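Subject: Re: docking follow-up (coenzyme A)

Dear J.,

Thanks for your patience while I sorted out the input files. As discussed at Tuesday's group meeting, I've set up the holo structure prediction with coenzyme A included as the bound ligand rather than trying to dock it afterwards. The sequence and the ligand SMILES I used are pasted below, so you can double-check that they match what you have on your end before we go further.
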Amino acid sequence: MTIVLETEHLTIRHWEEEDAPALLEIYQDPEVRLYLGNLAQSVEEQIERLRAIKARYREGGDRFGSWAIVDKTTGELVGAVMLKPLPGHDEIEVGWHLGRSAWGKGYATEAGRACIQYGFNQLGLTRIVAVVNPLNTRSIAVTQRLGMRPEGTVTAYEKELAFFVLEP
Ligand SMILES: CC(C)(COP(=O)(O)OP(=O)(O)OC[C@H]1O[C@@H](n2cnc3c(N)ncnc32)[C@H](O)[C@@H]1OP(=O)(O)O)[C@@H](O)C(=O)NCCC(=O)NCCS
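The structure tokens for the complex came back this morning:
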């Protein structure tokens, strides 16, 4: 198991195929998937997607990625966090998905902050953005806890999304 980042409560690590059933269960919750796009429909499809994610980022030297968030106390997979190029834009985006039972604990903020610090300090990025469905108030609240500045809207993932920017 390769650890990517560690925070007070969380381990952020690369995906393992064994994560697929737990991740699928997280995404099958209607509250979790409300603002998310196209998700896997079966464990097999989820495994394929995890393999594709690993292959895609390995090609780029694993600078960017989508990673598993594990609760250090329980050892359970609680969600995903990503730092990666925003499709169609010359930007790097940070993003967060948590299982319903992990909401309300500050974990998205904690994982997002760790990715931002990694991006600025290890990768030398000068700007990190987030794109959020304007109705997704919980995710917008995460951007605000992280100090991200609202900059109107942007078209990404075929939708008009609220746009947030952070500079070091
Ligand atoms: C977006 C999402 C990750 C936000 O989760 P969240 O739990 O609201 O956000 P955080 O993990 O930062 O936790 C903040 C909450 O924990 C509380 N909290 C507890 N300890 C905290 C701490 N140390 N630091 C910050 N907040 C803390 C905060 O008061 C806040 O509570 P409340 O808003 O429920 O009153 C979650 O709703 C989700 O996964 N949604 C589905 C996927 C999705 O839409 N992702 C975003 C796509 S753009």
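A couple of observations from a first look. Strands lie at 3-6, 10-13, 65-71, 77-85, 92-98, 128-132, 149-156, 159-166. The radius of gyration is 15 Å.

Let me know if you'd like me to rerun anything.

Best regards,
T.
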